[in-house]
Design a protein that fits this description.
Layout lengths: L1 H7 L2 H5 L6 H4 L13 H9 L7 H4 L3 H19 L1
């Protein structure tokens, strides 16, 4: 589950274009605390050929990934009780 959720956190920002008009349709309505908006970090994430250990790559992901992990932990605890 985390593999899919984490990979979707920057999808709309990275793949928006003038053809699909995602920027005007819904990208502005996505919460900034749950999405990745850093273009360099997104480029390195989706294209690869970079290291995870570079601060530029992992810093924008800390808060959103932590929040997703927290929500998943709450769901797990709630559903297993």
């Amino acid at each position: 589950m985390m593999e899919i959720l984490v990979s979707l956190m920057g999808y709309a920002q990275f793949f928006q274009s003038s053809e699909n008009q995602w920027g005007s349709l819904f990208v502005g309505q996505l919460p900034s605390w749950l999405t990745i908006n850093d273009p360099m970090s997104l480029r390195h994430f989706y294209h690869g050929n970079s290291t995870l250990y570079d601060h530029v790559n992992y810093a924008p992901w800390i808060v959103p990934a932590s929040l997703v992990v927290g929500v998943c932990a709450v769901l797990y605890v709630h559903c297993s009780a």
